[in-house]
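Review form for a predicted model. The reviewer records the input and the model, then writes brief findings.
Reviewer: anonymous (R2)
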Amino acid sequence: MKAVYISEPGGPEVLEVREVQAPVAGPGEVLIDVVAAGLNRADVQQRKGFYPPPPGASEIPGLEVSGRIAGFGPGVTKAFSVGDKVVALLAGGGYAQQVAVPAGQVLRIPDGVDLVTAASLPEVAATVYSNLIMTAQLQPGETVLIHGATGGIGTMA
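Model under review:
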């Protein structure tokens, strides 16, 4: 399969497409045929050399994808079928034709959202939910002020 690699820290010109071994879904993982990948500030910072992947994460950049389920690793119990349209939040590896993702990080695409648009949802939606709902415990009827609402996360919030 083809995947994007960062040959050295720098601008967009350091990105290169390589032919690599296709992933295999391990225990608890879902294999996704990638249709689109989101582009986040973290991806840009990684390309510049300022945001290394976490230990054990793929060297291939890309933190969020949309696509179709291609297969399952042992022990996957989620109610997905091969061909289902999904999004996923991952530690890396999204800039490739396929990616293996823990099943708990895969969600169905909301009705009415196309595959390309859906690729931009996992990172911002998870970040906003984590911060506003889980951490701040924002409740219906409350008001919140969002500073810096020009980026993806601020706009989603």
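Findings: The two ends are 36 Å apart (CA to CA).
Further findings: The domain at 2-120 is CATH 3.90.180.10 (Quinone Oxidoreductase; Chain A, domain 1).
Recommendation: see findings above.
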